[in-house]
């Protein structure tokens, strides 16, 4: 049997795409053979133009539940320096995780890297401590037991410095893919994936839109209970949205709920095309 990774509908082995949403179907038996993501994964990512050219390695360890943690390192030639933290959840055939580098960098015109702190100090601003990179949200679907691909998104965010200057950064998004290299975690990341495993045809129309044609507006910051209520209504109404989380603890939610983890405040961004309906929901005009 084959399954649509977007809507979940099942079809016979001869079917190639879902008639409801056009998404390419995945062999259910092949993808379902993966039970854990523990081990080394080697992959590559790129931006919206689908130029996948930054190699990376994930070293993951799954807990007894569907949650997992790990580290990420990017190739020195193209990627960001340092080691980042990974936290996520895996439920065949879907995977979702957040990547955050402990030290954030900007890229100079000559291709070299400078830390965000160094950049702001050189511009005359006060910045006592290193600044982490913004969280990057990864989502993917397994093509088979050892290959996964999907999208990544950095939501619009603000950088606050010691002297209260705030810098805004626009949304960024792109594509990624990775393959399982085994349980030996000492393998290096040179070479990237051993084959060209990225297949755009396997992405749903919604995934493609999230990267290529998605403009958003900031609707404000909300407490977790309020955000859950608002986003629940967004989902009922088919309103496209994204979130930023304040990870300074204070509230725990189920890993497969909207927020998946610890958060105190939730910043909500809504697709520009849905702005009017979203605003009505937040104002309470339709009894949120």
Task: Please give a handful of descriptors for the protein shown.
288 residues; mainly beta; Lipocalin; Alpha-Beta Plaits; 2 domains; eight-stranded antiparallel β-barrel; three-stranded antiparallel β-sheet; 15% helix; globular
Structure description:
The protein is globular and about 65 Å long. The protein has five helices and 18 strands. The protein has two domains: 33-210, Lipocalin (Beta Barrel); 216-283, Hypothetical protein rpa1041 (Alpha-Beta Plaits), CATH 3.30.70.1530. The strands form five sheets. Strands 4-5-6-7-8-11-12-15 form an eight-stranded antiparallel β-barrel. Strands 2-1-3 form a three-stranded antiparallel β-sheet. Strands 16-18-17 form a three-stranded antiparallel β-sheet, covered by helices on one side. Helix content is 15%, strand content 39%. A hairpin with an 8-residue loop joins strand 6 and strand 7. It is mainly β. It has helices at residues 28-32, 116-122, 205-212, 224-237, 275-283, and strands spanning 2-3, 10-11, 26-27, 39-47, 52-62, 67-74, 83-91, 94-101, 105-107, 113-115, 136-144, 147-154, 157-160, 166-169, 172-182, 216-223, 241-245, 265-271.
């Amino acid at each position: 049997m084959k399954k649509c990774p977007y809507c979940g509908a099942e079809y016979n082995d001869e079917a190639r795409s879902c008639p409801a949403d056009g998404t390419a179907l995945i062999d259910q038996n092949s993808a379902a053979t993966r039970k854990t993501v523990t081990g080394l994964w080697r992959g590559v990512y790129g931006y919206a133009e689908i130029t996948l050219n930054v190699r990376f390695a994930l070293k993951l360890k799954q807990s007894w539940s569907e949650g997992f943690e790990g580290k990420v390192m990017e190739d020195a030639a193209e990627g960001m320096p340092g080691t980042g933290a990974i936290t996520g959840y895996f439920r065949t055939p879907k995977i979702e995780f957040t990547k955050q580098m402990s030290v954030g960098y900007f890229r100079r015109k000559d291709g070299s890297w400078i830390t965000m702190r160094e950049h702001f100090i050189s511009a005359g601003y006060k910045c006592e401590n290193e600044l982490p990179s913004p969280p990057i949200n990864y989502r993917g679907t397994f093509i088979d037991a050892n290959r996964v691909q999907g999208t990544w998104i950095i939501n619009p965010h603000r950088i606050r410095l010691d002297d209260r200057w705030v810098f805004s950064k626009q949304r960024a998004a792109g594509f990624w893919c990775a393959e399982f290299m085994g349980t030996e975690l000492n393998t290096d990341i040179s070479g990237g994936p051993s084959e060209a495993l990225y297949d755009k045809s396997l992405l749903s129309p919604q995934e493609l839109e999230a990267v290529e044609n998605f403009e958003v507006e900031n609707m404000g910051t909300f407490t977790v209970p309020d955000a859950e209520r608002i986003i629940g209504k967004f989902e009922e109404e088919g309103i496209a949205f994204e979130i930023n989380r304040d990870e300074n603890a204070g509230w725990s939610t189920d890993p497969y709920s909207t927020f998946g983890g610890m958060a105190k405040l939730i910043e909500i961004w809504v697709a520009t095309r849905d702005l009017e309906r979203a605003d009505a929901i937040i104002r309470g005009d339709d009894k949120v």
